[in-house]
Every structure is written in C-alpha cells, then in structure tokens.
Design brief:
By secondary structure, the chain is α/β, with parallel strands linked by helices. About 35% of the residues lie in helices and about 20% in strands. It contains eleven helices and eleven strands. The strands form two sheets. A seven-stranded mixed β-sheet has the order 1-2-11-7-8-10-9, sandwiched between helices. Helix 4 (about 110-115) links the parallel strand 4 (about 90-95) and strand 5. Helix 7 packs across helix 9 (about 190-195) and helix 10 crosses helix 11. It starts with a helix and ends in a 15-residue tail after the last strand. It binds pyridoxal-5'-phosphate. Pyridoxal-5'-phosphate (PLP) binds near residues 185, 187 and 190.
C-alpha cells in the first residue's frame, strides 16, 4: 500500500456510530443512530471524504498532481477538496460559479479554500453550465496543465465506490443490519453508495435538500435486491432555504444531543426522519441509521442566536 492509501485507510472508516438517546421533540418509537462522518476530519469532513478517497487514489495512480473541480461560492465540496489537497500534497484549482465574484472580498468558504492553497478561478454562470462538456474541459486543461478533474459535488463512479463503504461499516459497528439507512441528497452520490451496498433488509431513504419537479417518492437507481427512495418532502422551499421551524428544530436537536447539524443537508434530513417517525412510517423498534454528512463549515450563524 502506498503512503496515500495508508493515510486514507487510517482516516476514512473510523467514524463513530452514536445512539441518539434523547429524541426530539417527543419520544419516537425507533432506535435512531447517527453515523458521525462529520468527525472523519476537521476540514475534509463527511461524505466529501468518502467521495474523494478513490478519486485521490486514481489521481495519484495516474501521476496527476493537480485536482481541478467546480462549485458555487458556498460549496462544501470546494472546501473539502482544498483541504484534501493541502493534507495530501495535491495542487488544487477551484472553478467557481459567478464571475461577478472576482475581485470582491472572499466569503469564509472561499477564503478557506484560498488559504489552503486552492487557486480560484471565477467564471460566468453561462460558462459554468458547460462544466461537463469535453471541449470546455479541454480548454481548462490547456489553461491549467494536466489535471485530475473531479465533477461538481464530487459525484462520479469512484465517489460512489467510496460512499458504498458506509453501510458495511455501520453493520460492523451495530452488530446487525439496520432496518433503515438515511442520508441527505444533493447530487445523489451518497445515497447511490448506500443503495449499492445495502442488502434487501435495509430500506434506504435519501432526503432531498433541493426542490424536485415531481414530489413523488422515486426509487433511487438500484440493484434488484435493494430498496431505496428519494424523499422529496423536506426541502423547506428549496436548496439552502430555511424556515424558523427548521432552524428551531435544528437548534433544539443540537442542544439536546450536543451534536452540531447544519441547515442545508443534515438538519433537513433529521427533521424528515422525526416527522416520518411521528407519522408512524417506521415500524415500532426499527433501527434507523442516519449519516451525518458533515458540511458544518456552512452552518448558519443564526443557529447560535436561537
Ligand atoms: C454536507 C453535505 N451533505 C450531503 C450532501 C449531498 O450529497 P450528494 O451530493 O452525494 O447527494 C452534500 C453535497 O452534495 C453535502 O455537502
């Protein structure tokens, strides 16, 4: 095993599984566990770590020393990629959506990226939409030199290989197979990994962080034996939108359990789990495991004022 693989093996795969003993707002008849991927690393936290792991190994195997990736101004993925580059010795380039941001003071996410050594390159929203086109990627490579391109949000087949490792870890820690495994959904890479490795005994629920045109519980693309659904009902108005009810829920959960959440992904997922539990969706005594996918760098300061 080379040095990078050894470091990754030590870091990824060690997140604790915690029983949530004080369900909120009222007792719910399930055994709820939180898989604390937010604790994997102070900066490369949560699902980003899982998604980057095999991509970093692939970049190293191809002898590419530069990671180039994409994101918006508040992107957890840009933040994690910048941190991973610094930890593992890759040069990083972040292509940021919105050329109007160039020359303006950086927000805290982008300031962190730059401090971690990421070269930021702001492009127009129109160009940003071309981020998957081969000719656009060729032009970037011509500009920045040979690089390993990681898509927006970090989701690709190697990312799913990484997120597929979550369920086997949960089973080993629990000592049994969970009845339900839950995660938030953005680009869908995390939920795809859960579904990939779940057995037929586990139902996977992916809580949508953004509004989808159809508000149906659609199956996640799946193996014949797995059961997985996208739950569209808890986006609270759309991506990064919040309501006082959501923020109050998060703040109460944090105080009771001494675990921080954030309002874009994990807060919405946990709200959804509690709501489904109250409605009786989960059978009495069901073991429900929710993945804390990190993202705490984007936690709203408003939560501290509640
Ligand atoms: C903290 C956090 N949780 C969950 C997600 C959703 O993961 P995925 O894009 O794999 O669906 C993201 C980003 O995409 C994220 O930053």
């Amino acid at each position: 095993m080379d040095e990078l693989a050894r470091q990754l093996a030590n870091l990824v795969g060690n997140s604790p599984l915690k029983l949530i003993e004080a369900p909120f707002p009222e007792p719910v008849p399930i055994r709820l566990f939180l898989k604390r991927d937010d604790l994997l690393h102070p900066y490369v936290s949560g699902n980003k770590w899982r998604k980057l792991k095999y991509n970093l190994l692939a970049a190293r195997a191809r002898k590419l020393g530069t990671l180039l990736t994409f994101g918006g101004a508040y992107s957890n993925h840009l933040y994690a990629t910048a941190a991973a580059g610094q930890v593992f010795g890759f040069r990083t380039i972040g292509i940021v959506r919105g050329d109007e941001l160039a020359g303006k003071p950086l927000n805290s996410t982008l300031a962190f990226c730059r401090a971690a050594g990421m070269q930021l390159h702001f492009i127009s929203r129109e160009d940003y939409r071309r981020k998957e086109n081969a000719d656009f990627l060729d032009a970037l490579t011509a500009q920045f030199g040979p690089c390993y391109v990681v898509p927006e949000g970090g989701t690709n087949d190697l990312a799913i290989q990484g997120t597929a490792e979550i369920i086997p870890e949960i089973i080993a820690q629990l000592g049994c197979i969970p009845d339900f495994a839950c995660c938030p959904v953005g680009t869908g890479g995390t939920v795809a990994g859960l579904v990939k490795s779940a057995t037929e005994q586990t139902e996977v629920l992916g809580f949508m962080a953004l509004k989808v045109p159809d508000s149906l519980w659609l199956p996640v693309e799946t193996t014949p034996k797995a059961r997985g659904y996208r739950v569209p009902d808890y986006h609270f108005g759309g991506y990064a939108r919040t309501t006082p009810e959501l923020l109050n829920f998060i703040s109460n959960f944090e105080k009771r359990n001494d675990i921080l959440l954030e309002q874009v992904y994990t807060g919405k997922m946990l709200y959804g789990i509690y709501d489904l539990a109250r409605q009786g969706y989960f059978p009495e005594g069901a073991t429900v495991v929710a993945v804390h996918t990190g993202g705490l760098q984007g936690r709203s300061k408003a939560l501290d004022l509640i």
